[in-house]
Amino acid sequence: MRLSELPKGAPAVVDRVHDAHAADPIAQRLRDLGFVDGEPVRVVAVGPMGGDPVLIQIGFTRFALRKAEASRVSVRSEAAA
Amino acid sequence: MSASTLRIALVGNPNCGKTALFNLLTGGRQKVANYAGVTVERKEGRFTAPSGRVLQILDLPGTYSLDANSPDEMITRDVCAGNYPGEAVPDLIVCVADATNLRLHLRFVLEVKRLGRPVVLALNMMDTARQRGIVIDVPELQRRLGLPVVETVAVKRGGAQALIERVDGEVPAAAPVQPDDAASRADLHAQVRELLAATLTMPRATAAIDDTLDRWALHPVFGLAILAVVMFLVFQAVYSIGKPMTDAIADGFDWMGGHAATLMPAGPLQSLVTDGLFGGLGTVLGFLPEILVLFLFIIVLEESGYLPRAAFLLDRLMLSVGLTGRSFIPLLSSFACAIPGIMGTRSITDPRDRLTTILIAPLMTCSARLPVYALLIGAFIPIRYVFGVFNLQGVVLFTLYLAGILGAMLVGWVMKHIRRDKSEHALMMELPSYRVPKLRDVAIGLYERGMIFLKRLTGVILGLTVLMWFLSTFPGAPEGATRPAIEYSFAGYIGRGLQYIFAPIGFNWQISLALIPAFAARETAVAALATVYLVGGEAAGGLGHALAGQISLASALSLLVWFAYAPQCMSTLAIIKRETDSWRNVAISFGYMFVMAYTASFIVYQVARALA
Ligand SMILES: Nc1nc2c(ncn2[C@@H]2O[C@H](COP(=O)(O)OP(=O)(O)OP(=O)(O)O)[C@@H](O)[C@H]2O)c(=O)[nH]1
Ligand SMILES: [Mg+2]
């Protein structure tokens, strides 16, 4: 499942970040921010218009990501981890 | 002495307190605020350590990674690597990390360590960390990292003592240089996890208060309602608190001007003092309270951490007009002044987003326009209460601000369609912890703003006002003149020449003339009008009164709209040139705003006249 599809509040862990195209700087930055295998994530809030952007809790930090950015991150539910 | 100068660079993730630390160390007054991307250029300061050694400190923009992808991050990358033009590699890197956010910040520390330069780690925000029950085993962290680690509280006097002692001592040995590739980067995260497992006890990943506040502030319905209320309160307050003080100051200056006049013989000198200095400058100075009230709100909002939340709520709207949520904060700074706003766009990754933001930033109503608005609203809009609570003057002011915002959205939307831009725009914005602003910081911030205003007043505005007085006074009327003397002055001729352009939008010659000095500094329009009317002997009872008798409501509305959109202020155009390195962008910016202002004023004037 992609992070952009994760329901609000559901605990999950990151699987990996997919490059949208070769040498995708957004994907690389997401990895630097801590979106790496095994990292717990949660959707804390969604934007008022069309549920975009989403607010992600990762580590001790909250990041606002647009859906296009969040969809680069694949996640699995915590139970399956 | 210079042989023993130690050059130190402050680096770290955004919003970890580098600038606060810089200010504490050097006694500087650089801008500190609670969101990522406040510092966008390199700033230098120095201080003398207890040992007598001079330390030169560099404050740098925050960055999440040395793999930079926006102009501000590139500065930090280049300084660290010794590639920054005119800047040698720093002798020592002080890596600043937020102790409440180590999962993110330690990764960057490890990345910096791999540069193979001497590094000291400053664990900042230790006060908040302690409050939240976060325990860090510093000796163990130091041992595992192989770097000296000190604790700091950048917002407390003496909070950098441990850091000063450490950097004043021997420069620590550098770690070996390590290559930077995808595999070793992934490895950094594994190292951070190990470090945290061994040294950190964190009762809760986030502050409980942040979670509670965000439940309301980011709520799809309440969140937007809160945002609307906050914005509206600001404009109400500008009027309700600022206006009475402005009136008191204006009365004071009238009284002083009157007194000064009695002490001097009648003649040009007396006219310069009463009409130019007390009348012109005094009128502008009177608007200082309004400006300070506006800044009070801006400073409190900036420090609270609410602004990135507002950006989150509005991101989708911004996207629809070709902007990014990241444009929000530069645009908001533009309400103070477009210049820091335009510089703030350096934190925007995407160059097209950045250019759009730069081009529309001058449409945000800057504080220099406030005196003009306040003057005209005070003279033409009655004090009346709408729905029993909203002051009509406040409502009109709010509408003008809104007009600027809507205009900016329109321009953004048009640019997006001209470019047929379908590409992706990134957001990736960190939401910081909420903080209660410290009274002392707010007071210092206000004092700084007040001083900037007074410097402008005694500098450029004074100069222009004296010039306007000169132009309105000389040459005097010829023998046997039938019309008022001022109509024979330079000012009269220039103003009437300009009127050919501006008559269709309802400006008389005095207003047309005042637009010229307004191009150097907008507030001067007020001083210039005051001087012209005073010299013309038509300003009894204050400038507002004179205007109300001289021009129609339609002209006043047209002038308000003109100021909302007009290309003004040379400094803004100069900064656009500097930041985009293109005269073409300056021309586009000037051109579109002139057309927009003229068209909007024309429509408003003609419609208002038809209705009157
Ligand atoms: N409680 C507490 N707050 C701090 C401390 N240091 C900084 N702050 C606050 O943290 C926020 C960020 O401070 P800045 O100094 O602007 O951070 P910066 O690292 O320069 O940020 P950028 O320039 O955006 O990279 C501000 O709200 C400061 O008041 C600290 O030691 N304790
Ligand atoms: Mg800073």
From TrEMBL, chain A:
Ferrous iron transporter FeoA-like domain ranges (all copies): 1-77
PANTHER family in the record: FE(2+) TRANSPORT PROTEIN A (PTHR42954)
Signal peptide span: none
SMART domains hit by this protein: FeoA
Organism: Rhodanobacter spathiphylli B39
Keyword tags: Iron
MF terms (GO), sorted A to Z: transition metal ion binding
Protein name from the UniProt record: Fe2+ transport system protein A
Transmembrane among keywords: no
Pfam families assigned to the protein according to its UniProt record, in alphabetical order: FeoA
Superkingdom of this protein's organism: Bacteria
Keyword ATP-binding in annotation: no
From TrEMBL, chain B:
Keyword Iron: yes
Source organism: Rhodanobacter spathiphylli B39
One Gene Ontology term of the molecular function aspect: GTP binding
KW Cytoplasm (keyword) present: no
GO cellular component, one term: plasma membrane
Transmembrane segments annotated in the record for this chain: 216-235, 277-301, 321-343, 355-383, 395-415, 457-477, 553-576, 588-608
Protein name: Fe(2+) transporter FeoB
Keywords of this entry: Cell inner membrane, Cell membrane, GTP-binding, Ion transport, Iron, Iron transport, Membrane, Nucleotide-binding, Transmembrane, Transmembrane helix, Transport
Domain of life: Bacteria
Alphabetical list of CDD domains matching this protein: FeoB (cd01879)
Compartments in which it is found: Cell inner membrane
Membrane association type: Multi-pass membrane protein
Domain FeoB-type G stretches: 5-173
